[in-house]
Amino acid sequence: MLHRLCRLCLPGTVALCAGCNAFPAWAAVVVGAISGPLFLFFNYLLLRMRIDDPLDAIPVHGVGGMWGTLSVYIFKWDGESKKENGRLPSIAMKHGCLPGILMTGSRASFIGLGWNVAGLLAIICWTATLCFVMFYLLKIFRMLRVETEHEFKGISAYLIKQVLFRISKNSPFKAWIC
Which pLDDT band, with edges at 50, 70 and 90, does 6 fall under? Predict the structure, then answer.
């Protein structure tokens, strides 16, 4: 039970890093609370797509980071009330803050969100290109996968020449073979 709770906390922590200097306390709670269900959805989506991610790196760091980057200009508050057209927006005056899209809908917040989206797209393109090249080269040189026998027995046992692990009928390595 505790490990499941920790898995839900990690994407919230990652998401909060993007706007840690811009979020008020209540917005940090909202951003973290939204990142949990996003993690669960994308974790389920990866399982349905049969993408192997044993450490949940994509839902935690990828999705959590993207949500955090997008949420900066939604919940942004830098500690001072901002003026729009020479006066404070009534909602900002009433609640005491937030020049982000949620409260003021200011043009500057939409421009900032647009720049964050452009940055996310650049990061996604860069990462996808480098990963494609790397995995394609690994596939060409037959370095992407190990032999099926070693995969089922356990790659650790293969790599250290069975010095630390004895593979027997009752070994946990055999448990993976159905």
Answer: confident
